[in-house]
Design brief:
Length: about 400
Amino acid sequence: MVVRLPRPHRFDVCVALAGLLGGLLLWGAGLGTRPADEPIVLLDGRWPILLPLAVTAGCEALRRTRPRTALLVGTGALTADTLTQGNLVTVVMFTDLVYAAVVYGPPATARRVPWITGLLTVAGTVVPVVVWRVPEALLIGVVVGLIALMPAATGWIVRNHREVAEAARLRAEQTALLAEMDRTQAVVAERARMARELHDMVANHLSAIAIHSTAALSLDDPDTSRQALSVIRENSVEGLAEMRRLIGILRDGSGDREPAAAPTLDGLAALVEGARANGLDVTLRTDHGEVPAPVELAAYRIVQESLTNALKHASPGRVTVTLAQRDEMLDVRVTSPCGHRDGPRAPGSGAGLAGMRERTTLLGGVFAAGPRGARWTVHACLPTTETARGDSA
């Protein structure tokens, strides 16, 4: 299996070539960092200077892709450079390798290099002073600090700034993502709310229209047809008015955008009278005090949808609507006779029960609907206080 090494960065290759060219110019001019007669110079002559220079330049090409390897090899090259007359460009390129190892290396390398260079600086300061006991020995520690510690400290500062900037960028992206999720959830919730309102406001009128139009078509009786058409016209006008009001709220720049007053429990009597006009035998029993507006709206819509369902699906018989306030709960119960029927008197979408359940759940209440003996019962318990809603949740 052949392992492909990452290609050097183009900028790093340019840095390596520039360093090599600069070192060759200094070498050609005969400029070195040390005189040839110094005791530390073990490799006399000008040619040995080129090997550390070339190796360090090659490490510069790997400063970003293989920073640890480049630093280790560069350290060896700098050590070899100290045994020659030396080249200033080799030393400068080594400082860049230290900087790159901290900035681009793994986190462990970024933490260790400053500590190691700091210890080398301290050792380069203390040991020569103790051994030679001359003030000039302090210059060795200064040189080590300039070559090793300062590039490492600079790289550490730059890396920290980059990490802080990256963390800020990630937080900004997360904030934008959360904002988008909140916006999407708000749109979905608003669509669900408008769907419930549209269904509750219009379904009752359309169901009455469908039932009475069926009666007008099936019975050859002028009086019955006239009564059915009268009911159809009344429900059509009311349904059209409510539809226009709803569209006006949604539309920007035209129509009546003022929302209609939310129905309250005081309007249940008129709602029941409308159901009686549509042919239901309805009895209303209420025993409640002051309740919050959201609870009033939910209770009204639940009764409205229950009467619509009874109009479409219930067997002949009495429909009972009961509202009773007990402790911190408003108990809403609508019962209607259920029995065998070939089909509904008007088509339905099946969203009525889901809408009632959603309204109850949003208030932290409990909803149940289903047959109980010979009657179909819709039962909702709506909390009337914040404490009761918290307990229900």
